[in-house]
Amino acid sequence: MKIIILGAGRVGQSVADSLVSERNDITVIDTDAARLRDLESRFDLRGVVGNGIEPAVLAEAGAEDTDLLIACAAQDETNLVCCKVAQLVFNIPKRIARVRSNGFTLDERLTGPDGFGVDRIICPEESLTRYIGKLIEYPEAMQVREFAGGRACLVSGRARPGAPMVGPTIGELRERAPEMAMRMVAIYRRFADEPDRFIACDGATRIEPGDEVFVLAAHEHIAQVLAALHRPASQQAQPVRRIMIAGGGGVGLRLARQLAQTPGRFHIKIIEDHAERCVALASALPSDVLVLQGDTTDEDLLGDESIEEVDLFLALTDDDEDNIMSCLLAKRMGASRVLALINRRSYADLMHGTQIDIALSPAQAMLGELLAYVRQGDVQAVHSLRRGVAEALEIVARGDRKSSRVVGRKVSELQLPRDVHIGLIVRGLPDASDPVPGHPREPEVIIPRSATVIESNDHVVFFLPNKRRVRDVEKLFRVSATFF
User: Fold this and answer.
1) Could you tell me which residues come within 8 angstroms of residue 34 by beta carbon, excluding any fewer than 6 positions away?
2) 8-42: b (≥16 Cβ within 10 Å) or e
3) pLDDT tens, 261-277?
4) Could you tell me which residues are beta bridge partners of residue 444?
């Protein structure tokens, strides 16, 4: 696929990094020549220096035969105008814009074909806020990713000594709870002085303390799965009540607003260094959200605000180093769980799952929304995992036994790439493409066995430890021309 990316900032670089590795033809436009040269030295892509709203610059980038435009420059206005120029002048088929302002998402007339011509609006801050909200809902999880409209989830958790899932083989765990719609799809095990190593899951695999375990399960079983990984059966779950947010920027404000929509559920404090921003936060948030002016790495301030009683400490400033240091300090002073927003991938790799429970990259949180537009076939959801190395993919089976390589066939008959797991199947979801829908039935989450037969319109969720296998999966689900 031929793709133009407008903007070589943090989001643009993360998108380019992910898409280049999948053998796409990438061109990046930016006004900063030095930044483009750095990208060209690290990735197999082409840089074009200039303003992306100018037709001549887009033409130089190859807009005449481009399949997808991703406009993720710093300014909303630049991204919107670029999409409109791409639509009117070059007729680029798919146009995605990064937009921070909420106003454009509330009125589709502004972004539709007669407006700015945007097919999809992406807001990394909004994606990040939704994702952190899921981690608050499931405090024992390290990652939570949704499929099939939230009916199924992929979660990862750190296995703790004494937890029910630690010790027995996966085959024994299946026998203990055969009715539970769940499947362990990957284990990442830490060895001395080595990066986490992927461990394939089969019936003889055992979970060891310290493993990061990825599980696909029906939504209603997520809490039970995490509990079995994280704590002995005799212990009760501790819900998140007290939250401290370090940094009152866009993400901190969005998150506090989202949490405050449930009055009385959370006790929220925000620490912000700038006095003017504190005034703005206090006026924008409900009165029960406490806004404090101060340094997020001030030990005395954290002590005075009873950091030892905090269930979740969130470092959400724009400074990676401040976020790391404030999380380390909060953890040392007794905070139960800490999350750091870290833009640099190398920092996130070092810190995730160590003293810092969760190291979260803003770009990775929204990358899956972009990847769904790049994928071939009827891909419904994509989630980038393990800092972009692994991937979880939801794809719909179309056609019939004559036109499809998967429909009407048993799971054991599918020619899947090595280490690629079918985690689960969601069957019975409404199909918008069906012109004569039948009687609706309640969707069900199926854990596939070797004899399970794939049906048309099944939503199949895969886990791929190496995303280079994505093309093989897409090819397998491709429908032949006779179907159309």
Assistant:
1) none
2) bbbbbbbbbbbbbeeebbbbbbbeeeebbeebeee
3) 888 889 999 999 999 99
4) 427
